[in-house]
Design goal:
Helix content is 26%, strand content 24%. By secondary structure, it is an alpha/beta fold. The strands form four sheets. It has a nine-stranded mixed beta sheet with strand order 6-5-7-8-4-9-10-11-12. A seven-stranded mixed beta sheet has the order 15-16-14-13-17-20-21. Strands 2-1-3 form a three-stranded antiparallel beta sheet, with no helix packed on it. ATP binds at residues 96-103. InterPro entries: AAA+_ATPase, DNA_repair_RadA, P-loop_NTPase, RecA_ATP-bd, Ribosomal_Su5_D2-typ_SF, Ribsml_uS5_D2-typ_fold_subgr, Rubredoxin_2.
Length: 455
């Protein structure tokens, strides 16, 4: 096997040569030429070999840079989820169930950004241009300066974007794009990965913001390789139930703002309308105090949100009782039931348990543990929690109640909506000036005895 030729580099100017000499012919410095050590010991066809690249510029952590400029579209809920507006050169992935309203939301956003002065191109790979125009007509957006195209060829799309140089490009959807140099069908793993990589790299180099629409699987994950979520700067999920008018846009990843931020929208006949006070909307249909109904004061991103937990406990005719959950983690429900039985002596054997978060909201934070326990006990004992009371707190396996973060913000939101009392863990930092009557509980046994007179 022939040996790779040796190369030599001048430490002063970086000039390369095939032989060593005492003086650099490029800069004239003496004793600055050294032999290059190969970057990799493997063969050149399978590794980096001995060929060297260009040294990159390094900075220290104290280097100050101005924050990236942002463009607000005027939809406060969308701007909130994006972290304050659209960043130039960013790549955003939007996922959601079919028919949930992704195309409607992005068409409205495209019109808002275009009216704000950003040259915008909307590329549809699933619908014809006439269908998009019909949707724009229903939404009253025909006068927006959005340029439209229906295409799936990745090479043609990128050529057009390079020629037009818009500030924002929306690709609907990434699963329909195909690259002619990849030997697989559109929607396959290799095609989705290639299209996402090419569009993201193109966005960074040209300073164009790209929004990619992604399909989801039955499990609610972005279809195709999960590597797509790592390529982009922001991942947004559009959530909601077909039977509810509420739609929630949730940021699960954001390099330019807080993750887990939510924006709430309401589906109307004229598209998606912003909900500036989601707590009031989620509680608007709440009836008089009823067993199994408890209001939870939660935090979604930086926003306090009040939602209603509804529980139903009924005798089960089955040998294995049902445990049905909507909007919360079923595994955490099983843990709460086990703690109630082991620490408080309250069994749920032989009883069907149904738990629902009103309004189609999905709650994931552990601070909802105490509200769930209160709803379950209220339904089991047929005793209603006072209507003007909010509940929050995390339950440990020992039955102790642990404090949660941002307690003051939760209480302020509850006071703003007319609540007068709260039940919280004993060590919570409630602050002052909330105006609420706060009952602090140390453990779950004390909570059961104080509220339901048992335990």
């Amino acid at each position: 096997m022939a040996k790779a030729p040796k190369t030599f580099t001048c430490n002063a100017c970086g000039a390369s040569s095939s032989k060593w000499s005492g003086r650099c012919e490029a800069c004239g410095e003496w004793n600055t030429i050294v032999e290059d050590v190969p970057l990799s010991a493997g063969p050149a066809s399978k590794s980096l070999g001995g060929k060297r690249g260009t040294a990159i510029r390094l900075t220290d952590l104290s280097t100050e840079e101005t924050p990236p400029p942002r463009t607000e579209c005027g939809m406060a809920e969308l701007d909130r989820v994006l972290g304050g507006g659209l960043v130039p050169g960013s790549a955003i992935l939007v996922g959601g169930d079919p028919g949930i309203g992704k195309s409607t939301l992005l068409l409205q956003a495209a019109a808002k950004f275009a009216r704000a002065g950003l040259p915008t191109i909307y590329v549809s790979g699933e619908e014809a241009s006439a269908q998009v125009r019909m949707r724009a007509g229903r939404l009253g957006l025909t006068d927006a300066p959005v340029r439209l195209a229906a295409e799936t060829n990745l090479r043609d799309i990128m050529t057009t974007l390079d020629a037009e140089r818009p500030a924002l490009a929306i690709i609907d959807s990434i699963q329909t794009m195909w690259a002619d140099h990849v030997d697989s069908a559109p929607g396959s793993v290799s095609q989705v990965r290639t299209a996402a990589h090419e569009l993201t790299t193109f966005a960074k180099k040209r300073g164009i913001s790209v929004i990619l629409v992604g399909h989801v699987t039955k499990d609610g994950q972005i279809a195709g390789p999960r590597v797509v979520e790592h390529m982009v700067d922001t991942v947004l999920y559009f959530e909601g139930e077909r039977g509810h008018q509420f739609r929630i846009l949730r940021a699960v990843k954001n390099r330019f703002g807080p993750a887990d931020e939510i924006g709430v929208f309401e589906m109307t006949g004229k598209g998606l309308a912003e909900v500036l006070n989601p707590s009031a909307l989620f509680l608007s249909d709440r009836e008089d105090p009823a067993p199994g109904s408890v209001v939870f004061a939660g935090i979604e991103g930086t926003r306090p949100v009040l939602v209603e937990f509804q529980a139903l406990v009924a005798p089960s005719p089955l040998s294995q009782p049902r445990r049905s959950v909507l909007g919360w983690d079923s595994g955490r429900l099983a843990m709460i039931l086990a703690v109630l039985e082991a620490r408080c002596g309250i069994p749920f054997a032989g009883l069907d348990v149904y738990l629902n978060v009103a309004g189609g909201m999905k709650i994931s934070e552990p601070a909802a543990d105490l509200a769930v326990a209160a709803a379950l006990l209220s339904a089991r004992e047929d005793a209603a929690i006072p209507k003007e009371t909010v509940v929050f707190g995390e339950i440990s396996l020992s039955g102790a109640l642990r404090p949660v973060g941002q307690t003051e913000n939760r209480l302020k939101e509850a006071q703003k909506l007319g609540f007068t009392a709260a039940i919280a863990p004993a060590r919570s930092k409630t602050g002052s000036g909330t105006g609420l009557k706060i009952q602090k509980m140390a453990d779950l046994t004390g909570f059961v005895g104080e509220i339901f007179g048992a335990g």
